Amino acid sequence: MFQEKYDVIVVGGGHAGAEAAAAAANMGSKTLLITMNLQTIGQMSCNPAMGGIAKGQIVREIDALGGYSGIVSDKSAIQFKMLNKSKGPAMWSPRAQNDRMRFAEEWRLALENIPNLDFYQEMVGGLLIENNTIVGVKTSLGIEVKARAVVLTNGTFLNGLIHIGEKQFGGGRAGERAATGITEELTSLGFESGRMKTGTPPRVDGRSLDYTVMIPQPGDENPEKFSYLNTPKLTTQRDCFMTHTSAEVHDLLREGFDRSPMFNGRIKSIGPRYCPSIEDKINRFADKDSHQIFVEPEGWDTVEIYVNGFSTSLPEDVQFKALRSVKGFEKVKFFRPGYAIEYDYFPPTQLKHTLETKLVENLYFAGQINGTTGYEEAASQGLMAGINAHLKLQEKDAFILKRDEAYIGVLIDDLITKGTEEPYRMFTSRAEYRTLLRQDNADLRLTPMSFELGLAGEERMKRMEEKNGKSQSFLQFFKETSFQPKEINPILEEINSSLVKQPDKMFKVLSRPQVTMDHMMQLDTVSSFVDDNNLDREVLEQTEIQVKYSGYIEKEKVNADKMHRLENVRIPDNFDYSKLKSLSYEAREKLKAIQPVTIAQAARVSGVNPSDISVLLVYLGR
Question: Is the full-model pTM beyond 0.70?
Fold first, then answer.
């Protein structure tokens, strides 16, 4: 069946696998995507939404790099919101509700449009390895498929075990079997593995809910989108709704705690800290007698509803009884109960920054196999693994994003240098250069790099250059053009900002916290410039941020430059840390295990102190 040898095989068709396969194939590698079920490519296993705090930035970055997640999200969106608009622009995060079925369909169609990409449906049960180098995979039917590189994106399927109360059964997702064989093979090669847990809430029949007693959660009045390309903008949106649990609901849930796999010892692995189950929430926050429940439609036309905030592995009768006591859910009908799932993962400190494993050459890991949680985190890793697998086969330099270049860079660096013992998710607080890494400038940061790689196309590059050119010329206009007190003072008076006595540059007045671009647009000189140059809202927003935050942006650039100097101090391969007796014992152990490539990476390893870095610098000839 498989006479030819592939360049890249991607195992798994989730968010990581789809992006990995698309990237490798679009860059020119002959690629095969093997997945257990071709009908569930790009499946949203948990809630039907993309983006959110920091995650929205990642989707924009994937799009800027030539990935597909933003395009697929825009084509299947049913609602769009920009979160954190009351805070500074470094915190603004786009989020979309999606039509679950259309999302998966759009992914499938997008992948089928890539000429270099083949598909095959079967479980991969083994790896073909020669001289510590991957040479292919072996399927459950015993078919051997040869390849020069392999990307594993197995999600929650590796020895997956589903829990509902005291019942447990093998599975990688509701209604789908677990994947076996790969964990055992990798551990026999010397890989360290662990177990993690995640969960999902019940899905219910929207026709059985009373929305009149819930709080509507509409989308933005002027919805934006994820992709920088010409994807469709939402003209109509579907509302979500919010309701709350109560003390009565919590008491009903507690009745099932003795049958909960979380509390009776059946589940021993750690779940996501920032997306806890409802039983975990009422246990950890016992002083709270109410928690928010978000009622999210699964699509435009379906009646299926996702009960966000009610993730649980309690017995199905307890779930049903408790949910019927939630306001608006008194007559609820279940489509399926919530469940928890345990699965194997491999601590990501066993990877290089390219996501290639240290133990087996040309073998890459991406997504939940690395201990992360979230579609966006998985998709970004898949994209980077696909890019780097192709580059290595072409004997080209690796593509590694720095911490001041992308949230994707922060994510991968955190995983590789710090590891994770609980499902890792991205937050804006994890990025020390978040003023540089905004959602509005991901294309300016990353598209030129991707274009050079051959992944971002001409259209994407042209759009970025046009936006950048317009933004820079508008910025220059503010720096060079003066205002007269008589034209600006009425506006300043209206917003209780101190009046001016003499002409000054417009840049200075827009720098004031109370003054917005909308205020400046009231000036004829500004509105005329905008009309004459055909500037859109995106350019106006970009320029305003550049003006208001110029001081902060420059400061972060200076800090990033300082860190880059340490990034340039390389540590020799297989460096023997045991000979540096001045290093702390913990630093020796951690550095030996992780083998950082540069001093900057060594400084970010958990347990390595500034004094240890000084010792290293002295030894390496500071």
Answer: yes
